[in-house]
């Protein structure tokens, strides 16, 4: 081969190598993955019960909740209701499309709301007919909507692939509408132990909703953040049918509430309604850490109870995640002279005397399901009060916010006086992620978190 021919061969080969290199850089999956994020979520889910931390990425609700817990227009331009809050008519914004760019028609929308009749008067209107008055109904429609029998939402992400093990989802692959956002892989783990192992092995770059961040603080590769969660409250529930802490012994329950410690690193729950809510009442007694008031309440208890009952042991049942908190509560009660033992149980026990638990609370101040005497499955304390029942019933029937506020103000005062529970604090939602993924996490998390004014 002559020098000239060799030169042409090498020049052509060099050009080919450069061209292939450029092509590989532009289509190489590793390059694509550099703008991807893998998140780990804890729990077992199917398509119809995915947590909002996932579905908020895929779609939006007809309404959204403002910082004070009011429903405001979102995909719906507005709504109408009748005087007794049994019928609601929502109008969609014009020219809405699904993430696949097909137009949204009212009859496409899938809703799963028990005891509600749903009709579609026209392609832009949805009508809901309830069996009973429920003025807080619009707040239920803040959940992301989907096209019937699918996971097609309005974005900002669209579902590319869903993987399962038997009936439960193990992995969802998502692609953003806006290319400046990372591609997402959501992996689901049945328990926290498995999720922590996956994070340590590098299967995911972040974990959402872990119980504690303590073990990650010494990890040089990881960062942590905790978002205040006003949709849940950590409380001590008292069994209203218990012979010691039950209905007739209000003073001993008040003593336990006054004697419970203040957790200084947490945002204290003054009532069962978050302090950001339009219905929050702040001018009620401060219970936590008020040991003088606890002693006075014990004095009243001694006047109405047998001393031998006051000497009996109080059993505080706690979940494993709250075992440390339970120990601090028990120590505080022991300081009042009340014998206390902590019992750790997974899940919600059928029978308990006092139960330390994290409960989900509605964004709207309506807490009918938690405290009304008829709600035997969700009113875990078996609390019964004619006054509270009336406040909760009226709060559901009244449309006027000012009149509803009066009812929920009285509800909060009455509930605290009866002390079927001690409200401790609003928990934080814990997140751990690799430092190298920080920029992507900071972009995605605001889309996912919807805790009614998270901080």
Structural class: alpha+beta
Helix content: 25-40%
Name of the CATH architecture of the largest domain? Roll
Number of helices: 13
Report the strand count: 19
- Average pLDDT, to the nearest integer? 91
Q: How many angstroms separate the termini?
A: 73 Å
CATH class of the largest domain equals Alpha Beta
The assembly state of the depicted protein chains is: single chain
Query: Can you tell me the residue ranges where pLDDT is under 50 for at least 5 consecutive residues?
Result: 13-32
Widest sheet: strand order?
A: 8-9-10-1-11-19-12
| Overall 3D shape | globular
For this structure, what is the CATH homologous superfamily of the largest domain? Dipeptide-binding Protein, Domain 3
- The number of distinct structural domains comes to 3
Q: What integer value in Å does the Rg equal?
A: 27 Å
Percent of sequence in beta strands: 25-35%
Q: Biggest β-sheet, characterized?
A: 7 strands, mixed
| CATH fold annotation of the largest domain | Dipeptide-binding Protein, domain 3
Structure description:
There is one protein chain. With 455 residues, this protein is α+β, with helices and mostly antiparallel strands. It folds into three domains: 34-53 and 155-227 and 435-448, 3-Layer(aba) Sandwich (D-Maltodextrin-Binding Protein, domain 2), CATH 3.40.190; 59-140, Dipeptide-binding Protein, Domain 1 (Dipeptide-binding Protein, domain 1); 232-426, Roll (Dipeptide-binding Protein, domain 3), CATH 3.10.105.10. It has 13 helices and 19 strands. It has helices spanning 3-27, 29-33, 52-55, 137-140, 192-200, 250-259, 291-304, 307-310, 323-335, 368-371, 386-397, 401-418, 438-448; strands spanning 36-42, 63-65, 71-73, 76-81, 87-92, 116-122, 125-130, 157-165, 168-176, 183-189, 206-210, 222-228, 232-238, 267-268, 314-318, 340-344, 354-360, 421-426, 428-434. A seven-stranded mixed β-sheet has the order 8-9-10-1-11-19-12. A six-stranded mixed β-sheet has the order 14-18-13-17-15-16, sandwiched between helices. A hairpin with a 2-residue loop joins strand 8 and strand 9 (168-176). Helix 6 (250-259) runs antiparallel to helix 7 (291-304) and helix 11 runs antiparallel to helix 12 (401-418). The longest helix has 25 residues, at 3-27.
């Amino acid at each position: 081969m002559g020098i000239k021919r060799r030169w042409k061969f090498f020049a052509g080969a060099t050009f080919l190598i450069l061209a292939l290199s450029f092509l590989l850089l532009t289509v190489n999956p590793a390059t694509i993955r550099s703008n991807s994020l893998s998140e780990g979520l804890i729990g077992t889910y199917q398509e119809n019960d995915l947590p909002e931390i996932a579905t908020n990425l895929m779609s939006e609700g007809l309404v959204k909740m403002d910082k004070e817990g009011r429903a405001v227009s979102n995909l719906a331009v507005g709504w109408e209701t009748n005087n007794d809050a049994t019928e609601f008519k929502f109008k969609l914004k014009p020219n809405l499309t699904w993430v696949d760019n097909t137009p949204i028609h009212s009859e496409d929308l899938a809703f799963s709301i028990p005891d509600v009749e749903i009709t579609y008067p026209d392609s832009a209107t949805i009508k809901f007919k309830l069996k009973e008055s429920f003025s807080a109904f619009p707040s239920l429609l803040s959940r992301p909507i989907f096209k019937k029998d699918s996971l097609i939402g309005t974005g900002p992400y669209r579902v590319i692939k869903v993987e399962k093990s038997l009936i439960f989802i193990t992995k969802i692959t998502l692609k953003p509408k806006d290319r400046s956002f990372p591609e997402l892989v959501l992996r689901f783990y049945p328990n926290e132990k498995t999720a922590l192992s996956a994070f340590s092995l590098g299967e995911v770059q972040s974990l959402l909703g872990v119980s504690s961040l303590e073990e990650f603080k010494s990890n040089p590769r990881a960062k942590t953040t905790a978002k205040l969660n006003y949709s849940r409250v950590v409380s001590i529930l008292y069994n209203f049918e218990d012979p010691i802490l039950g209905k007739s012994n209000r003073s001993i329950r008040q003593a336990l509430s006054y004697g419970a410690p203040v957790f200084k690193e947490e945002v204290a729950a003054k009532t069962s309604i978050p302090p950001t809510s339009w219905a929050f009442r702040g001018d009620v007694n401060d219970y936590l850490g008020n040991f003088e008031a606890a002693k006075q309440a014990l004095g009243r208890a001694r006047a109405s109870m047998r001393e031998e009952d006051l000497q009996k042991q109080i059993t505080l049942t706690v979940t494993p995640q709250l075992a440390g908190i339970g120990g601090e509560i028990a120590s505080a009660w022991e300081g009042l002279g009340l014998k206390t033992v902590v019992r750790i149980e997974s899940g919600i026990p059928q029978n308990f005397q006092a139960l330390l638990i994290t409960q989900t609370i509605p964004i709207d101040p309506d807490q009918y399901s938690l405290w009304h005497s008829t709600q035997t499955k969700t009113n875990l304390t078996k609390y019964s009060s004619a006054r509270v029942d009336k406040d909760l019933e009226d709060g559901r029937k009244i449309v006027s916010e000012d009149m509803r506020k009066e009812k929920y103000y009285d509800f909060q005062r009455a509930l605290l006086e009866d002390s079927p529970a001690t409200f401790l604090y609003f928990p934080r939602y814990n997140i751990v992620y690799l430092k190298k993924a920080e920029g992507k996490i900071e972009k995605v998390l605001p889309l996912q978190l919807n805790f009614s004014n998270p901080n």
